[in-house]
Amino acid sequence: MVDVAIIGAGVVGCSIARELSKYSITVSVIEKDSDVSNGTSKANSGIVHGGYDSKFGTLKGSLCVQGNSMFKDLNDQLHFGFNKCGSFVLAFSSDDMVELHHLYENGKKNGIKNLEIVDREFVLKKEPNINQEVVGALYCADAGVISPWEYAIAMAENAALNGVSFLLNNKVTSIAKKENHFTIQTDKNTINTRYIINCAGLYSDEISNMVGVNRFKIRPRKGEYILFDKEYSGLTNSILFQTPNNGSKGVLVTPTYHGNMMIGPNAEYICDKEDTSTTSQGLATLQHKVQKTLKSIDYSKAITQFSGLRAATDTYDFIIEESQVKQFINVGAIDSPGLTSSPAIAVMVSKLLLNAGLKLKKDHTFNPNLTPIIKVNELNIHDKNKLIKKDPRYGRVICRCESMTQGEIVEALHRPIPATTLDAVKRRARAGAGRCQGGFCSPRVMEIINEELDLPVLDINKSEDKSNILIDKTKKSMEVHL
Amino acid sequence: MKYDLVVVGGGPAGLAAALKAHQEGLEDILIIERDTVLGGILNQCIHNGFGVHKFKEELTGPEYSQKYIDKILNTNIQVQTDTMVLHVTKEKELHVISASQGYQVIYAKAVVLAMGCRERTRGAINIPGTRPAGVFTAGTAQRFINLEGYMPGKNVVILGSGDIGLIMARRMTLEGAKVNCVLELMPYSNGLTRNIVQCLDDYNIPLKLSHSVVKIHGKNRLEGVTIAQVDKQLKPISETEIYIPCDTLLLSIGLIPENELTRECGIELDIRTKGATVDQNRETSITGIFSCGNVLHVHDLVDYVSEEGEIAAIGAVNYIKSNKKSKKEFAYTVPMEGISYIVPQKINIGDQDKTNIYLRVNKVYEQCVISGYINNSKIYTKKYTKLTPGEMVSFNIDKGKLSLSEQDQIKFKIEEE
Predict the structure, then answer these.
(1) Which PANTHER family match (chain A) (predicted)?
(2) Distance from CA of A106 to the nearest CA of B (A)
(3) Considering the domain boundaries, does residue A107 fall inside one?
């Protein structure tokens, strides 16, 4: 029996796990996929929003601003990487300027301090390459970018080191309400727990239904993105939104934490919760809409396109509450600004648990700090040489596009939440995230996985089960092995 | 550490450059190679057809590179493998990292850049759909099969009829895979004619010209692709869409010179070739830094890569030996109608009389003439029965006879016979 079971290891589940690891309680995280941060959390804009566009008086409004203020300290402790690059909402007409003032007023009510309406000159000084027809902007210095999966992984790893157990590859199939606890059945295990926190993202409605709470229905909203070569880094410096009008949010241009330019997302409601395909129409829409911000983009500099599904509902706000089934807490409908809000959501959930009768006693052994994977690139020459002398693997570059060494990849395979797939390595050690998209390094990364984890090469997956990269040995090599 | 010449890259261009520089009497030469062995991409090119021009025989890739490696090992040329060059500066300092030596700064009198090229990926051509396992660039699949001994799939569609795609169509067939078809966006193939005959026709693999992949299907492993014919503007025609079940999609959709070091160094690049802008000695906009092989422009035959490595080596040796810092005066080559690029882009008129010109045409031409003009007067002309974008055109012009002056433009174009 555990005290709390968290269903879903996205940014919200991982944030809650880390928050709860501060207390002397037992916590398990149950995740259907092979890695944490594998759904919506890995495919979004990666933005720590200012919080001016979340309606005042809603959970989104308060949690987004509160979450934003937590990122600096979190990054100091967990080192996932946070670039407070600031954001502009760009106006191209007097109508847009009117809308900016609405956003400004709303932001002020939400409690944002560093928010101002700036003129054309201010914008163009910071962003000289954008469409010169810009007339003004709403500037928020507190907005920034993170790599969303590295943030979630860091939260999960810190939680794991502080005693939270993670059950990956476990899909919840049923939940039985007992007198004072729940029995969660997964496709592999049975878990008894006193409290359940449902943060299953796209599937949070279905998990809620398992205990008979039909409070909300998720309507997946697809957002497609195009990511560019680092050759384009420096073309823009801040997060660039377009002023929303007539219900359209426009598309944004942002640097990612790692310095790639990214454009997106569109927004399309779909039915299939697994449909993360990109579409020719969706990508064309992006290319059309982005022209308002950047007049010409060379799409041959794109390195990948992807889409993510937002766990949206028909209502505007997040749903964070103890349900009518006691000790079952729903954390649902977490669409944008869910990433920014996640650390604040975690604090709110701990209070809900307290109110629901769970004793939360501070665990004095809690260590808030996480030692990240060594980043060879960021060391000075002296430290590089000291490290390489101690462990030569940090001198062998495996991923040439992102300059990632064997040492860093090996570390990723032995972290508190270890990588076991190519995508998981990519999310922890960047190998395969660069301009060649793994063309050069994937055979070598597979060799390292094979050696370090003793996993047969033919069993190495790209991501989930049955996503194996290779299917057989060649005829010749089979003869040799006979 | 100091060297007269540092060659970045130990593939065919770098090997030829280092060997030639040694033969020209240079003593102090270092080759830096990121892989654990020399030879570059030739190591995985186990098919034959290399060296027809250079050695008058058909060699495999490893045989071709071994000819150079054997000679180099008999010289005092230094080789540092398993070493990555991270930065090259204008002052010709090379920042490198390796497991054995750590982080080093190496000083060179001259540098030859020979980093080769990489394959374009799915992202560069915006193919919509899911992102399953089973979508490979042709070269990655080639490495898995030829060097690692593994099959990336059994039921294959190939997009792009570049030479690697054609070679892989045959290779996968020989390994027992079913290759459904090779699709080519353009109305003509970018591959060598001999490869279309020997790799597709001989195995009854259909080549579908003016076709592309419009959607990728499958959640975990590739399940199929939707293909369609494209119109003259290269836009897919939706009525022609067909679904082909397959577990593997190989992409052979072009090569990109790998010029990240070059760009960072501040060397001028040509948007046409995506390589450095060079003179006839393959010297870049920064004196003493030379560029050759596929990092300069993508070649069709390795023989020309080696040839260009030697040109760059001679340039580098002369640069090191001469010490002359005379002002350079350039005339320029200009690609006009029908020509997609020309290397070299400029001609240093105070230097060497014979200039080797490489160029590519922008589509298929039959019974045509390539002509060169300076100020409307014809200075060069040659007839061809057929020219295709996939096959490089190479010829010499004798600069001495042209009496070029500074800023002259030599305009090359395709004309009807």
Answers:
(1) GLYCEROL 3-PHOSPHATE OXIDASE (PTHR42720:SF1), GLYCEROL-3-PHOSPHATE DEHYDROGENASE (PTHR42720)
(2) 38
(3) yes
Cβ under 8 Å to B: A residues 110-169: none
Q: Are A241 and A386 within one domain?
A: no
Task: Please tell me the distance from the alpha carbon of residue A329 to that of residue A195, in angstroms, as a whole number.
Answer: 8
Q: Which of A49, A101, A288, A364 is catalytic?
A: A49
Nearest CA in chain A to B98: A395
Chain A residue with minimum CA distance to B87: A403
Taking an 8 Å cut-off on Cβ atoms, the answer to whether B124 and A463 are in contact is no
CB contact A458 to B (< 8 Å): yes
How far is the C-alpha of A462 from the C-alpha of A466, rounded, in Å?
Answer: 9
* Residue A482 belongs to a domain: no
Contact between residue A404 and residue A398 where contact means Cβ atoms under 8 Å apart: yes
* Co-location of A236 and A134 in the same domain: yes
pLDDT by residue for chain B (417 residues), tens only, comes to 999 999 999 999 999 999 999 999 999 999 999 999 999 999 999 999 999 999 999 999 999 999 999 999 999 999 999 999 999 999 999 999 999 999 999 999 999 999 999 999 999 999 999 999 999 999 999 999 999 999 999 999 999 999 999 999 999 999 999 999 999 999 999 888 889 999 999 999 999 999 999 999 999 999 999 999 999 999 999 999 999 999 999 999 999 999 999 999 999 999 999 999 999 999 999 999 999 999 999 999 999 999 999 999 999 999 999 866 667 889 999 999 999 999 999 999 888 778 889 999 999 999 999 999 998 899 999 999 999 998 899 999 887 777 888 889 999 999 987
CA–CA min distance A407, chain B (Å): 10
| Three-class secondary structure of residue B401 per DSSP | helix
Considering the domain boundaries, does residue A420 fall inside one? Answer: yes
Looking at CA atoms only, how far is residue A388 from chain B in angstroms? Answer: 6
Q: For testing the chain A interface, which of B220, B247, B250, B269 should be mutated: the one with the most A CBs within 10 Å?
A: B220
* Residue pairs between chains A and B whose CB atoms are closer than 8 Å: 150
From B99, B101, B220, residue closest to A465, measured CB to CB: B220
Q: Do B132 and A443 touch (CB under 8 A)?
A: no
Query: Taking CB atoms and an 8 Å cutoff, what residues of chain A touch B128?
Result: 277-280, 282-283, 305
Q: Same domain for A209 and A224? A: no
Of B120, B126, B144, the CB nearest to A470: B144
Segments forming the whole domain that contains residue A437: 376-459
A49 labelled catalytic? yes
Answer whether B123 sits within 8 Å of A437, measured CB to CB: yes
Walk me through the domains of chain B, giving residue ranges and CATH numbers: 1-119+254-325 (3.50.50.60), 121-253 (3.50.50.60), 328-417 (2.60.40)
